Amino acid sequence: MSRALARTTALAAGLAFAVAAQAQTAAPKGASDGVVKIGILNDQSGVYADFGGRGSVEAARMAVEDFGGKVLDVPVQIVDADHQNKPDIASNIARQWYDTDKVDAIMELTTSSVALAVQGLSKEKRKITIVDGAATSDLTGKQCTPYGFHWAYDTHALAVGTGGSLVETGGDTWFFLTADYAFGTALQADVTQYVTQKGGKVVGAVRHPLSAQDFSSFLLQAQGSGAKIIGLANAGLDTSNAIKQAAEFGIVQGGQRLAALLFTLSEVHGLGLKAAQGIVLTEGYYWDLDDQARGFAKRFMAKTGKMPNMIQAGTYSSVLHYLKAVKAAGTDDTDAVAAKMRELKVDDFFGRGGTVQANGRMVHDMYLFQVKSPAESKAPWDYYKLLATIPGDKAFLSAKASGCPLTQ
């Protein structure tokens, strides 16, 4: 490195340190209004109600309980609302929470269009968002913000996991059934890039509306394409309904394979092993992975009657990390807490030594699973067999490669 470049690098590093130090020095100590309030904003009645829903609210409450119910000697309160998968409704709720109800941070945010809208509003209001339920990698890419964090998974990780595994085992031609909004577009784009990099080819695609009931015309187009893999770039009940109706058309029996690009334990449970068996999927958590995972799952089951998926486990982790950052900062000031969130390691059953990049992306291992057949399952909720662990630095883009303007 030249002396001039070394001096420039040192000056830049020194400036960054000074700005961070100034933000923390200027931050008032303690909680600003006698309570730390966290909002869980997600779909509680629609197509993604089982994806996160009330289960994510319960997971957030469990995190607060495990933290001790207080931070900086003031109580921690969880509030929640149903955004109905509509960005305008979500933005109105978030604005009221910030302006009237003094909510400090909003989390979960199922549905990418909702997450992008609320993250944008939160930048304006200087409030923290942590996204667990939405997928688009744009949240920490071209639309990143200083206060936006992305936790459980993203479209890039799904492309590397499910998309990569199927291409490498011979699935080199693809046709996509894609949900017609930000998430579906991003997921199809990320998987397409990965498929083509591996030497595969996309032969076609069709978009369907959110909460579609009839997939017959879309499935017939996919069947007629002759593609080896039909990629379902959707989630929740849309994925479940597409799989059910694909069975009626005999698509799998005809030699084509279905790739459920975003499929969680909740949807497998709703669909049943007979219909879901053999599907390959990527998640960031499975309840039976090890003793740590089982410990949380047992408590969650006692409260909800269900095993948690990665969205619900991720919500627990994000709430816990936020509270640790507030405690470490000694204040609930947004800039100080955001700095601590990036500084602290993520130390829980979900993150397992995860790190938070400058763009807000939490990097942790992901897991490639295959759904068991009914004969392979030995107990209730015994649904997955582990195929591979995907290291975090492989699953997620680096901050530099993400396209985030803050890190270029």
Q: What do these coordinates show?
A:
With 408 residues, the protein is α/β, with parallel strands linked by helices. 44% of the residues lie in helices and 18% in strands. The protein has a six-stranded mixed β-sheet, with helices on both faces. Strand 4, helix 4 and strand 5 form a beta-alpha-beta unit. Helix 3 packs parallel to helix 4, helix 5 packs parallel to helix 6 and helix 12 crosses helix 13. The longest helix has 24 residues. The protein is globular and about 65 Å long. It starts with a helix and ends in a 13-residue tail after the last helix. The N terminus is likely disordered.
Which characteristics define this entry?
alpha/beta; six-stranded mixed sheet; 14 helices; 15 strands; 44% helix; globular; disordered N terminus
Radius of gyration: 21 Å
Main pleated sheet: 6 strands, mixed
Poorly predicted runs are 1-25
Could you tell me the mean pLDDT?
92
β-strand percent reads 15-25%
Secondary structure elements and pairings:
Blueprint: H1 3-26, E1 36-42, H2 53-67, E2 70-71, E3 74-82, H3 87-99, E4 105-108, H4 112-125, E5 128-131, E6 148-150, H5 155-168, E7 173-179, H6 182-197, E8 201-208, H7 216-225, E9 229-233, H8 236-248, E10 257-260, H9 265-271, H10 273-276, E11 280-283, H11 291-304, H12 310-329, H13 334-343, E12 355-356, E13 362-363, E14 366-371, E15 384-390, H14 392-395
Parallel strand pairs: 1-3, 1-4, 4-5, 5-6, 7-8, 7-9, 9-10
Antiparallel strand pairs: 2-3, 11-14, 12-13, 14-15
Helix pairs in contact: 2-12, 3-4, 5-6, 8-9, 12-13
Protein name: ABC transporter permease
Keywords: Amino-acid transport, Signal, Transport
Domain Leucine-binding protein: 36-372
